[in-house]
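Per reviewer request, we include the raw input and output of the structure prediction for the construct analysed in the revised manuscript.
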Amino acid sequence: MSDATIHHKAQRGRLFVLSGPSGVGKSTVLGLVRAQLPALHYSISATTRQPRAGERDGVHYHFVDTDTFACLVQAGEMLEHAQFAGNFYGTPRTEVESRLDAGQDVLLEIEVQGARQVRASGGVGSEAILLFLAPPSFEELARRLTGRGTEDVATRTARLDAARAELAAEPEFDHTVVNTDVAVATSALVDLMSQ
């Protein structure tokens, strides 16, 4: 084992937090980022929302009921948690911290509220690198959400209202990547996480 390898293992991993409004293309871009950065650990969030078609427990999310989620929050087992569009989302703390301690970089894909909580949490969160994935325009974001067809009108309206507030939070982030083109956005995120 070389000295460089020993040094790398002793070094703490970096925590990246990616946020952006619903419909901006986070899942698509992150799938490509993960393919290009296979050593990056992608943290799976817990949620109380129902799975969408094709989603699997433990792969896309940890799907839990509201009581279980509340118990996890009460026990301090969530690095962050938020309510969004009537459902709860959160990041299990233990896995993130153990990966960082082992020297592995970790990526969280969470909402703006959660990114704020991570940054304010101190400890692991105080060193987090916050990345914001933005749409080219609000109109384009609305078109993407409408075209997705996975939500009813009330949920879509709530997501658009939340998106306006999330877009206003962009200055709180360390870096912004505009998703005009998936390949270009992916390349920009890979570059940021490879520095």
